[in-house]
Amino acid sequence: GAVVSQHPSWVICKSGTSVKIECRSLDFQATTMFWYRQFPKQSLMLMATSNEGSKATYEQGVEKDKFLINHASLTLSTLTVTSAHPEDSSFYICSARAPGTSVNNEQFFGPGTRLTVL
Amino acid sequence: AQKVTQAQTEISVVEKEDVTLDCVYETRDTTYYLFWYKQPPSGELVFLIRRNSFDEQNEISGRYSWNFQKSTSSFNFTITASQVVDSAVYFCALRTPPSGTYKYIFGTGTRLKVLA
To answer: Which of A42, A69, A77, B76 could form a disulfide with A33 if both were Cys (CB 3.0 to 4.6 A apart)?
Structure first.
């Protein structure tokens, strides 16, 4: 099946620094990638939808200047948390859509990245 | 408005017991899709099933079965003869038009603990 990887799997950073998280589709081309945030013991909340070669579409309440998303190629999307603060500590999950593959499994999820901001 | 409710926050069962996880959804759209995902402690979401709104047939896959009832807007998930490896958080999700967006609305999840 289609595989999505994320790097790093976990990261600890100091408050005020920026952190970049990569999401890669390893064996398929993903025209659309999604970024989710999951706080402990809570649900996944969609942050933004990223289409290759175009600007990301952010959900209401998500600061686009704080969470920079770049989808420069069909296999890579990056999420940069700028000037991170402790409240940004969360589990960030990406997913990728592979048109033409199984109609049932629409999105393939990455393993997630746990961000801790000190 | 679209919404997915998983009222059961946490369920504990003893191995080999059957367990049903509830999912109630809200949408005004006539075309929609429902999903179940499993999130083990490792964090990666595992796809379990997709059901479209026009297919109310129940589905069985091994020890897993799903009951879709449009009349009650529910899409419940039953695990038969539960095993310790079933311990995870299970999410129900809804996708509605417009087509092409593929945005999911997730429920808050049900944490299932299967005790040996």
So the answer is: A77
